[in-house]
Amino acid sequence: MSKMLRIKGGALGGLIALALMAAGCIFTGSGPKPGPSVDPGKPFEVTFRPGDHIRIELSGVGPTMTQIQPRVEEVKGDGTINIEYLNAIHVVGKTAKEVEQIIYTNYVPNIYKAATITVMPMEMLFYVGGQVNHPGSILYNGKITCTKAIQAAGDFTDFADRKNVQLTRANGKVIYVNYDKALKDPALDPEVFPHDQITVDRRM
After folding, report:
1. DSSP secondary structure string, 101-143?
2. How far apart are CA 195 and CA 192, in angstroms?
3. 109 and 166 together in one domain
4. Which of 70, 121, 125 is nearest to 92 (CA)?
5. Residue with more model confidence, 46 or 192
6. How far apart are CA 127 and CA 150, in angstroms?
7. In 3D, which of 39, 35, 16 has the Cα closest to residue 26?
8. Residue 88 sits in a domain of what CATH number?
9. Residue 27 falls within a domain, yes or no?
10. 1-10, 32-41, 59-68, 109-118: which has the highest mean pLDDT?
C-alpha cells in the first residue's frame, strides 16, 4: 500500500511540475532571463523613404548638355525621383552614396565625360511617442542618442516606464533601453536615426 502511494505521489508531483512550467512558474537553466540590450551591430545607414526630400548637386564636364543647378527632389509614392535627361530613378531603401552611384552611371559617359555628384538627405525626422510631454515628430539635425531624443520631446510624464523605452529602427529592429542606466553609461544609450520610432509605455 505504501509503495502504491509513493508511485501515485511521484506521478502527481510530476503533473504539478509540468503545470507550473506551462504557466511560466518554473525556469530551466542556470543563466538569467534575457533583458533589454543595445544593438551591437554595424553603424546604421540612413536610407530613403517616400516623402523624403533629397538635395542633388551635380557638376560635369562634357559638351552634350548644360550644367544642372542644385535642386531638391521629393521621393514620390512609387519610390522614385526625377532628374533632367534621365528616366525616373528608384531611390527608396537606398543610401545617399548608392543614389550618387546610380546617377553617376546614368550620366557618365553617355551625357558627361566626367561628373561630380553629391546627394544629401534633407528634413529627415524621427518620432517620439507615448508617455512624453511633447510627443510627435522631431527634425533630425545630426547625431542624437535615445536619452537626448526623449529630452527633446519634453522628457517623461509622471506615468512613464523609464526602464523599458522601446526604440524601433526604420528596418523594424527593436531595442529596449533602460533610460536611467543609459544616463550613467553611454554604452547603453543607442544613437537615434531618421525614421526611428521611440515609444514610452505607461508604467504598470
Report:
1. HHHHHHHTTTT-SEEEEEEEEES-EEEEEESBSS-EEEE--S-
2. 9
3. no
4. 121
5. 192
6. 10
7. 16
8. 3.30.1950.10
9. no
10. 109-118
Parallel, antiparallel, or unpaired for β 197-200 and 165-168? antiparallel
pLDDT (tens digit, 9 = 90+) per residue, 156-176? 999 999 999 999 998 889 999
Q: What is the CATH number of the domain that holds 141?
A: 3.10.560.10
| Position 42 pLDDT exceeds 50 | no
Phi-psi region of 103 (alpha: psi -120 to 50; beta: other; left: phi over 0): alpha
Mean pLDDT of 14-35: 37
Number of structural domains in the chain: 2
Range of the domain at 176: 125-200
Residues in the chain: 204
Give the global pTM.
0.56
